[in-house]
Amino acid sequence: MAVLLWPDLGKEGEVKLLLAPSVEEALAILAEEAETRETVFVSKLWHRIPAQDVILDECLQVLAEVALSLWPYWYGEKFEPGRTAEAQVLNRLRARELSAKRDPAISSTWLRAAMHLCQQQRLPVVPGIQRAIQVQQLAKAIAPRELTLALATDEPEPAPSYLLGLAKAATWLADHSQARLVLVVPSALAAHPELASVSYGALQVPLPERREEFDSSVQVVVGCKGSPHPFSLAEKKLAERVAADPQLKDLLEFNQVLQSVTGQSFLADLLWREGKVVVEVDGPEHCSRDRYYQDRLRDYQLLISGYLVLRIPNDLVMSDCERAVEMIRKVIQQQRSRL
After folding, report:
1. Which fold has domain 14-221?
2. Fewer CB within 10 Å: C terminus or N terminus of the chain?
3. Does 240 have pLDDT greater than 60?
4. Which sequence spans correspond to the domains of the chain?
């Protein structure tokens, strides 16, 4: 596994160029590192670089999808998700307070329209508002989580004008979103003059171990320490049930970073810290051969570090949440009897 330190990726509002022998592997490494951080990591991979305007439009679309998934948790606060008149009044008042007190750059006009779209489960892309403003406002809504965007291509010999457009799009997005921007391209493109504007301090990603092939055209990782993952329906359903359980609500913490005795960091879906019990809610992605292998190594690391690991399938949580909770309760009871 290649080592890529998060601080090496530069500052917010800047572009860092990553040169990788395997672009998809580099994106996977970034996503794994982001899982252990309080961050939102969004990557977009093009096998053929499109025109600059298309790049920006597609990135705007992805940011809107992330914002909709996080709704009603915007700006580190919880808005009213309902569509009642009372909810709309409360949200308008909160929008006015945010722009007046916290950040004058928050557009209350955009925010009111975007909230209305989210309440209808529509993407918060507001017609008639400039793309630059939309990108800026979406990035602010996703905050206060740190936002890292990765634009990537594995096209071996892109047309110079399109490669230049990708570099310009990265700079434009970094400037308007004030996110950390990572541009990932094949190592063979290092000397191309079209990348000169973003090549200062470029990082070379070492060749990692071979992985099973996967589709990484779009990846979104949301650091969600202390709360269920916003993209996991199973975690959110389990969180609601745990919060209503008097025996479990004060014991279990969602998405906590653990460190094994060998120094490796892992993100636990649920953790009973005192009893050293880890509960993992496994979706279908855990069925692949590579993921199954990595999960067993992870379980071993946690085992030798004193943790008991319980794995519960997503499908069980969604179909019979009471049974899933009862499994957690029995494991905790058994572990407690050994303390």
Report:
1. Rossmann fold (3.40.50)
2. C
3. yes
4. 14-221, 224-338
